[in-house]
Amino acid sequence: MPAHGLTRARTMGPIADAVAAAGGSVRRVFGRAGMPLTLLDTPDRLILLRDQLALVEAAIREIGDAALPARLSTRAGIVGLGPIGVQVQSAETLGAALGRVEIVTPVLLQTATLTGVRCHGTEAFYSYEVAERIEIGRQANEILALGYLLGTARHFLGAGWRPKRAVVTGAWLPARGEIEALFGCEVALGPRAGLVFPAPLLGALNPRRIHPAREGGMEGAPIDDGLAGCVAHVIALDLDEGGPSIDRVARRLGLSRRTLQRRLEEAGTCYADIHRRVMLRRASERLAETTLGIGRIAAELGYGDAAHFTRAFLGWTGATPSQWRRHHSSRSRLASSKPGQA
Known about the structure:
By secondary structure, the chain is an alpha+beta fold. It contains 16 helices and seven strands.
């Protein structure tokens, strides 16, 4: 079974802006997708790829704009790809840039997806594929991705460049005319999504090459898309909504409770251990970064009162939350006072 895909939440902001501009309800869209609005403030946070797809579909339904994915990605261009966009702009040729996208995308931006270039005679096919078995929102996600792929090519070939055609999967394509106008080419249906263009263009030189080190081209930690990592990200996400449970996490991953438990056992861990690590990390972050009272942090973590949270934290660390906060504050002051420290 393919790994569950994870992706950065940075596309959430443009989607929310588009919904608001069209007079739709951003809160309703996020609610339908089962996603917390707090994601808008954390663009580099990791979420399930299937949740992103559900959000795009909810936005399309909310404002009645099936061409929304093409509109968003063509407007953003390679800037919307973050550090991957910097890698593209630092490549010598278009072919080298597409090679970098293939390697870096699953590491920094979005796992469980495949990109690559295949040449057939004089034609090149720049493909995009979701490896995870997700049906809802798949075509919309392909259109979103193709817009970014188009932006990559246009960096080398000019803003007005048009591919021979684009291809998406599915039995039919809503708003085909609008999407074709945005892409500047015919959009066909086929077994794999991608862009078709003349193969010799792979040698096109970069007209505005930058230096990736000076532009922060590899910012961001690599994505761990193992099952334990996915479970941890879902638990952290559900904390924003009032409290995770193993049944809720299993549903979000498209698994039964027993299947999730069995696969975690096979990976050498269990749900309780992952849940404890996530809770400790979130609690430590809130204690270190804010001046919120212990009761408020307890409520954020789903505890009924400060006493229950204090007992749990004492079991995790051997210290109460107040003791931990005082110790952390003392260490921080000591580190900042050392010579040579910023």
